[in-house]
Amino acid sequence: xxxxxxQERMLNGxxxxxxxxxxxxxxxxxxxxxxxxxxxxxxxxxxGVSYSNILDPxxxxxxxxxxxxxxxxxxxxxxxxxxxxxxxSELIDGSYARKQAVIDDSLxxxxxxxxxxxxxxxxxxxAQGEFLAWGESxxxxxxxxxxxxxxxxxxxxxxxxSALTGFTYYAGLHDPGNRVARVLVYVKDPRVRGNPGALGLxxxxxxxxxxxxxxxxxxxxxxxxxxxxxxxxxxxxxxxxEGVTPRGFYSTDLVDKVEVEWGDVEEYIGTEPGGGSILxxxxxPHLYPWEFLEIYRQVVKRGVLPxxxxxxITIPVEVYERHYIEVLRLRRLGVDVAAGTCPVVxxxxxxxxxxxxxxxxxxxxxxxxxxxxxxxxxxLGVIRAVxxxxxx
Length: 392
Hints:
By secondary structure, this protein is α/β, with parallel strands linked by helices. It has 3 domains: 171 residues, Aconitase, domain 3 (2-Layer Sandwich); 89 residues, no CATH class; 118 residues, Aconitase, domain 3 (2-Layer Sandwich), CATH 3.30.499.10. Helix content is 40%, strand content 17%. It is built from 16 helices and 14 strands. The strands form 4 sheets. The protein has a 5-stranded parallel beta sheet, sandwiched between helices. Helix 10 links the parallel strand 7 and strand 8. The mean pLDDT is 96.
């Protein structure tokens, strides 16, 4: 691999052991993937920062980087932690608050932006063609597929390494030769389009090559749900979306065509709850302000939730701070709003019989973890279900 003089000095320890370690991780990964050079990144996004996932070994690793003098050399954002940063949630377990605070303190002192969200593109929308080093699978898919930026699906340590050096390896989806759609996926049925979580699960499970999806719609709210599900259930870091993905940042060499029927996605939808306690969940990925406010309007006009129903909404810390009054009103109606976290990277304080959500990613990770029956519907369907109106 060719390294510039600055990169060689980093690798040789002239910038300290932390930078040398980080550069070594990047170089070794790049060499294993056939990279011949490194490129500068405009934005790193670090996942693997929730204590409930990384526990003491991960905490100690991050702390050691800070104590060793590690500092962000590029704009760097942070994925959700395992605690509710509003301090108001009754559903998110706060047992690990002290441990999470140690991780957060180290990250912040290294110069990372404490956004605690899985939608870093909300804080800084990527430019077309710029190199990123992102470690959150759903965000990676959105960056490549919607914004036309370039990032691989990095593990937490590799995204950390890019944050501390400002570089990543030139391989994978950074190489235009690997951004080639080979399977045309045609979405005709509006019922399929109307359940992006189920469509995403089907896409991840059934299509192995990079797909070109026609007819999935163009709204960011639904697209990020679909992309998150396909990234969770499969390995899709790039889904070419006809009419959305910027031209010039992908090519096509179609060798197969598939039309998605309603029967294809039905197996991923689960069973509509008929009784028992219900947890409705919205916000995986996190919600934009306009998404949150639309849910707020739908809830307020319906009033207080029934006793055996709860609705959990997860949002970025910044959205919580902007809409604190709305959050308090929702709490009075029995709605739990958590900021800077989600149940995928935290623990819940209660057990429910049913999980109703619009998120295929949440179904993929939570249905077994919560040992609950699940039902996958759209946003309005979730709200209707927790109010006993039926999710259809």
